[in-house]
Structure formats: C-alpha cells, structure tokens
Specification:
alpha+beta; OB fold (Dihydrolipoamide Acetyltransferase, E2P); 6 helices; about 25% strand
Length: about 150
C-alpha cells in the first residue's frame, strides 16, 4: 500500500520532493486507514461529509434476492454496501476473495430512512492490488510481443 502511494506522490529523485511525498503518503494512510475502534467515527464522517475515502479490502457478492451487488468493507464492519455492476465487472477479483483499494464511500440519508435501506455506496475505486482475474494471461500475451530486434 505504501509503495502505491509513494509512486503516486513521489515521482521525483529530488530528496526534498521525496521527503514531501513521504509526508503526504503518511498523512493519506493515517486519514484513510480505519483502525480498530474507529469504525463508527468513519461511518459518521461519511454521513456528515457525504463522502469519504478509505483504504480497505473490498469483496462483493450478488444478492440474488434483490438482484444487486453488495460490497463488504471489513475495516468498517459493513457487509451491505451498494456497488454498481459495472464496477464489479471491471474488477472481478472482488468476487473471488477481493483486493485492496482506495475507495470513495458515500452515504445517502434518504436511503437510510427506507425500510431495509442500504445508505452506504461505493462511488469510486482505485485498485492498489491487481483487480482482474486474467491479468497474468494478459501480461504473458503482451510479453510474447516483445522483441530484441530494432
């Protein structure tokens, strides 16, 4: 996770810029990682702000009763987070054990008022780990096209 954020914020070889990037990464990790006992604090922030960004392991399942995909975010102890089918299809590893990602989590108070409402939803997702099942086959196919000829 740290490597992902370092690459994102430290694209330089200048020592000052690297140190500044490391500070940004440390802040991002502190602000987006849910520690034990902070679950309700992050849920409340989502409610108050409308959206928060967290880093978590994301898995999903199809709820056949409602024909909706539901995501699980273990650090928040949420098992019924709404997620759109396109996002699940794009990152199908969430159906087979999950992967770590930076997640935009939203809260909709109107849905919370509904009977059996699911107010939390995943609005955006940036994978930190590989999120597609066939990535090794894709890499192998691409590598086969490499050549040493000029």
């Amino acid at each position: 996770m740290v490597d992902f954020l370092l690459v994102r914020y430290c694209g330089s070889t200048d020592q000052e810029e690297i140190e500044e990037g490391i500070k940004i990464v440390q802040t991002q990790i502190a602000n987006r990682t849910v520690k034990a006992g902070e679950e309700e604090l992050f849920k409340s922030r989502s409610r108050e702000k409308g959206e928060i960004r967290i880093i978590d392991l994301i898995t999903a399942r199809l709820d056949a009763r409602t024909d909706f995909y539901l995501a699980t975010l273990p650090s928040l102890q949420l098992n019924d987070v709404r997620i759109n089918p396109e996002m699940v299809n794009e990152h199908e590893r969430m159906l087979t054990g999950g992967f770590y990602a930076e997640i935009g989590l939203t809260y909709d108070a109107a849905i919370a008022q509904e009977k059996s409402g699911r107010p939390f939803a995943i609005d955006s997702l940036r994978e930190i780990q590989l999120s597609k099942r066939d990535v090794l086959e894709m890499l192998a196919a691409a590598r086969a096209q490499f050549t040493t000829a000029d």
